[in-house]
Amino acid sequence: MWWAEEQVAIAPKGLPIAVLPLVVIAEVHRCRQEQEEDSYGLMIHPWVDCPHIDLALERWWRYRAPRPHACFADDANYLAHALSFANRHHEAAEIFDAIGPYATRIPWAYCGRARELFLRHRAWAYSPPRRRRP
After folding, report:
1. How confident is the model at residue 72 (pLDDT cuts 50, 70, 90)?
2. What is the pTM of this model?
């Protein structure tokens, strides 16, 4: 993670390397689930209050090139996944728009059934905000 954070800090804005810490977090999450099957659980999401999401938005997403790069779908899915599991669904709508029908199995499969999770979180991103009753 330290290496990933360092690379993000020194890279020019607009490069998708800003997503690398989100990849690390997803991989650690997957490994912990495999190693601690009974004690870790699916309800633990390391993306809540994760500063790396904002860094990816600010260092890559806001300054990205107008044409997608070769691994755009992979990078965008990691960002949409992180935003979704951080309960920042409405912020993820723009990323889901850019992904279009090109969902990737990874990282969605790290938290359950990939297709179902992608479709559910995309639907939540497009749904109107819920208002709390007084």
Report:
1. very high
2. 0.90
